[in-house]
Design a protein that fits this description.
The protein has about 300 residues and is an alpha+beta fold. The protein has 9 helices and 10 strands. It has a 5-stranded antiparallel beta sheet with strand order 2-1-5-4-3, with helices on both faces. It has a 5-stranded mixed beta sheet with strand order 7-8-6-9-10, sandwiched between helices. A hairpin with a 2-residue loop joins strand 7 and strand 8.
Length: about 300
């Protein structure tokens, strides 16, 4: 077997002077990768072929390490070709007789694969987020569905058990919805549901829970709202529903039942159930008193 040439190695081989950092040798692979003619290497130093960040890393970590141990393994750095292109690389470095010997492997393919893995992960996360969102949203009204509302209520209960904050539970029911459906058709009924849902979104805040509770019934949980705040909310809601009648066939109104969470309820495990029952009782009173109105559990 003939003596193998250093040019045959499929990696970049280099030698630099420890004191001056001048390039003293590069093999054919390094010459091709860096765009440096082997006859011109004396005109280049180490810092001409690695990035500024890699230069700082070399002086602050690599040089002290090779002085101390004689070598430094798997050093990640950025090569800079004569064209200005930066190439990620991994180097094994050894110090011998005031010369630094480098065997360098470019990591372009590894970085490309890593980038592809990141993109796939981000795509999967995005798809998962879409699926989770779809399972939480009522497809007609785009509000939270009942299951999602219950999940959020359970989370709210845990927060309230740590620290009490005024919360009001508001149940909204579209008056005489069956009559609207029978008179104008189900597509009209769907249109009413969508418009009422849009109004609920507009009069609520991002911190509130707004859900289609079932059929023509909706739930709004006003976070950080005392009874006085809930009065204002319900007035805005009735005004917005009333204005809806200017643009839609049939008369649309809503009955509303409200229950405000008391501090003693916030430590009770049945807190949510109790408030929902109270709001439901208030809603029943609103309907029995002629509809298109709000009743508060305290006044029942």
């Amino acid at each position: 077997m003939t003596q193998p040439s250093l040019d045959s190695f499929p990696c970049l081989l280099m030698v630099t002077d420890f004191e001056t950092n001048k390039l003293e040798y590069i093999n054919r692979s390094a010459s091709a990768c860096l765009g440096i003619n082997t006859d011109d290497i004396q005109q280049h130093s180490l810092f001409d072929i690695i990035s500024k960040a890699s230069s700082i890393f070399f002086e602050s970590y690599v040089r002290p390490t090779i002085v101390s141990t004689g070598e430094c393994q798997e050093v990640q750095l950025s090569l800079v070709a004569s064209s200005g292109e930066k190439l990620p690389a991994v180097a094994n470095i050894e110090l011998a007789q005031a010369k630094i010997y480098w065997s360098v492997y470019t990591a372009v393919a590894r970085d490309r694969l890593y980038q592809e893995l990141i993109e796939v992960r981000e795509q999967l996360e995005e798809e998962t987020e879409k699926l989770v969102r779809l399972t939480r949203i009522d497809p007609l009204t785009q509000l939270l569905n009942r299951r999602a509302a219950l999940d959020d209520l359970n989370s709210l209960q845990k927060r309230l058990q740590r620290q009490f904050i005024p919360v009001s539970f508001v149940i909204i029911d579209i008056d005489l919805f069956k009559k609207l459906n029978d008179t104008y058709g189900h597509s009209h009924g769907d249109e009413v549901l969508v418009k009422v849902a849009a109004i609920l979104q507009n009069v609520s805040r991002a911190s509130d829970i707004v859900a289609r509770w079932g059929g023509e019934e909706f739930l709004v949980v006003l976070y950080g709202s005392c009874v006085e705040d809930t009065h204002c909310f319900c007035e805005r809601l009735h005004a917005a529903i009333s204005s809806l009648n200017d643009s839609i066939d049939g008369e649309v109104s809503v009955s509303v039942g409200v229950s405000a969470l008391s501090a003693e309820y916030s430590v009770c495990s049945e807190m949510i159930d109790n408030c929902m029952k109270e709001a439901d009782a208030a809603l029943y009173q609103a309907k029995s008193k002629g509809r298109s109105r709000t009743e508060y559990f305290e006044s029942v």
